[in-house]
Amino acid sequence: MASSIVSGSSSASNQPRGYSVQPAEKEVDKPRPTMTPFYDEDTKISFSCQNSTLPLKLSSVLLVVSFILQVISVGAPYWSAGWRRDKMSWYEGVWMTCYRADLDNKWICGAYDYSNNKHGVPGWYTFCQAMGLISLVVFLPALLINFFYTMHPKMKMFRGMRFFNFVLTFVTGLVPLLMVIVWIAGHPMKDRFPIPYRDKDYDDEPFMIHFCFVFEIFAFIISFAAFGLEVHDYRKSDYGN
């Protein structure tokens, strides 16, 4: 009996041993490679006015003010006007001209050539209309890009587009300036309405600029001021060095 037990244990010891898998060593405090460093904690995007400098904040505010003035100037027909016998006898804007019939309270409004001997719209007037539309089209992307750089925490990541922002801001001031120059240079003023304005008993003014023309002057001045602030911020920052 004992021999059988010994032989059994001997045969068991002669059997091949299996290979055991040792548990892998636990990695402790081993840094993992970051596949997309753009989305780490330091570069997380958070839009806020606190991410920008004071000059860029001021430039954004100025662009909004300039845009509002430009919309009013292009939309309202009060660029120039004339007075006869202490009453406004006509007024005109980029899209429409109105005049008072026989100095009563009835106003007649229409296109530029409603009382002009030459049919069609003159070139200076068409130019102002085209510049008015272009100014509104340029203002929208200029405002969006300006807000982006004002509130984005990583402006240096978009350095190339920042120069595009400079160009758009400059154009928002250049277009209103051209409209003001062309309007004054091209408008026939007195000859626009060949009627006897002067009256010795009244202080008549055949041609005067109106509030929309003044708004247009402020629009290009404010836009150029915003452009100057952007350039100043760029030169003072590390990106301009």
TrEMBL record:
Ranges of Low complexity composition bias in the record: 1-13
Transmembrane regions listed in the UniProt entry: 61-81, 124-151, 163-186, 206-229
Keywords: Membrane, Transmembrane, Transmembrane helix
Signal peptide: none
PANTHER family linked to this entry: EG:80H7.2 PROTEIN
Species the sequence originates in: Aplysia californica (California sea hare)
Protein name as catalogued: Uncharacterized protein LOC101862829
Region (Disordered): 1-33
UniProt keyword Secreted present: no
